[in-house]
């Protein structure tokens, strides 16, 4: 029994010694960490002091300085724009230049006329282009027809009439293209004329529709003004008739 007690006591002492050693190791590690942190803070402070003392020679400061100047200029321009655009609620909408009433009325009055004039010019340009593409081909066909006309007289045959590409026929063809009415039997035979007809139609149809919308809008405004004048005159006459009917009995007395 004595031996067992002695072994137990020895084990307890060893455990206590181990615990004390572990505690000492933890305390030493904590002290080392604190010393390292203190040294790092001192180094950081020294680095900051050195950074600000030698900021003129530091490349980061030399890069940051123009960026800061640009930022200040941007703030100044934004402040100026804010002063200029005071009173505007929506920043996304740009401020359009003010147009005088007289200029606005002139645009409204002469806008449809300019559209019609430009449409007429567009038709003339198209007609001249079709003449350029198709007139030479038509001249060749005419020579062939003249050569074959001798056989008409001998055989008593009638050759089909060829549609000449004159200015009038070219204008009617262009009008049929842009209005989508149709151009009848006349059509370009050359490759250049066919390609030009396609491009002319692609550009001309939206242009014609736009001019038609503008002119119809102006006509609607004219009809509205006329209807207001007519209704005003009729209302005035009805008021006169009502007032006269009420005043006439009083005049008898």
TrEMBL record:
Membrane topology field: Multi-pass membrane protein
InterPro entries referenced in this protein's UniProt entry, alphabetically: 2pore_dom_K_chnl (IPR003280), K_chnl_dom (IPR013099)
Chief location bin: membrane
Keywords: Ion channel, Ion transport, Membrane, Transmembrane, Transmembrane helix, Transport
Protein name as annotated: Potassium channel domain-containing protein
Record-annotated Potassium channel domain positions: 162-215
Transmembrane segments annotated in the record for this chain: 110-133, 197-220
């Amino acid at each position: 029994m004595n031996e067992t007690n002695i072994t137990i006591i020895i084990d307890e002492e060893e455990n206590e010694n181990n615990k004390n050693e572990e505690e000492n190791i933890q305390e030493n590690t904590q002290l080392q960490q604190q010393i390292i942190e203190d040294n790092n803070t001192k180094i950081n402070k020294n680095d900051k002091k050195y950074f600000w003392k030698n900021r003129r020679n530091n490349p980061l400061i030399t890069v940051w300085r123009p960026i800061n100047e640009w930022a200040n200029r941007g703030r100044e321009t934004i402040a100026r724009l804010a002063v200029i655009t005071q009173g505007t609620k929506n920043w996304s909408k740009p401020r359009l230049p003010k147009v005088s009433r007289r200029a606005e009325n002139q645009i409204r009055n002469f806008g449809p006329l300019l559209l019609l004039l430009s449409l007429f010019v567009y038709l003339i340009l198209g007609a001249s282009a079709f003449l350029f593409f198709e007139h030479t081909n038509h001249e060749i066909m005419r020579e062939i027809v003249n050569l074959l006309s001798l056989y008409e007289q001998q055989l008593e045959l009638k050759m089909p009439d060829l549609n000449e590409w004159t200015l009038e026929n070219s204008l009617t063809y262009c009008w049929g293209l842009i209005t989508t009415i149709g151009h009848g039997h006349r059509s370009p035979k050359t490759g250049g004329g066919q390609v030009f007809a396609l491009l002319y139609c692609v550009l001309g149809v939206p242009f014609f529709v736009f001019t038609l919308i503008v002119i119809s809008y102006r006509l609607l405004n004219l009809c509205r003004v006329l209807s207001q004048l007519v209704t005003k005159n009729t209302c005035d006459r009805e008021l006169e008739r009502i007032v006269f009917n009420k005043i006439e009995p009083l005049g008898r007395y």
